[in-house]
Request: fold
Amino acid sequence: DVKVTQSSRYLVKRTGEKVFLECVQDMDHENMFWYRQDPGLGLRLIYFSYDVKMKEKGDIPEGYSVSREKKERFSLILESASTNQTSMYLCASSTPKSGANVLTFGAGSRLTVL
Amino acid sequence: EDQVTQSPEALRLQEGESSSLNCSYTVSGLRGLFWYRQDPGKGPEFLFTLYSAGEEKEKERLKATLTKKESFLHITAPKPEDSATYLCAVQAVEYGNKLVFGAGTILRVKS
Reply:
């Protein structure tokens, strides 16, 4: 019954490595989002996409990029990981038919950068 | 200044002890206020959307209410399975269609 799947639950990377976080949804949702979640800071929006090959910056895009080549897949890329990118990363999707901000989240990917 | 503030940060209740969580916001042009529940090790799960002051929504032991500057999530006779982090988020004119989340309230209900 999993609807939003994040490929890795736990990752440990070294400073400077390139990191790919993959997210796939099976609900045919138009919108997809990447958030990071840090204690005391809540969820912060990194990037979002309302359509294939479309992307828009969220509140904290620095150090990240995204790719959406297919409707169901939204990838987050850390070009050169840094320790301050250690965090929980959450992918979400939604559709305007149910409310663009009624988000379905994945289980999260916890990234540690050493 | 935080746009969305949740209080308390953590709340411990005995089973059956009713209480409320608060979400206050300073945004103008509110388009919607959202409540999500997050269990440990999982992503948030949508609970409610409120659009205008005076609106209320209910689901099992939870009731969400909205005023012009805050929302309350009332928990009536909670059970241990209600233990989770509760997140609120606002959608406002100045932020377009994006949600701004609060930091959450961690609720623990002991039997």
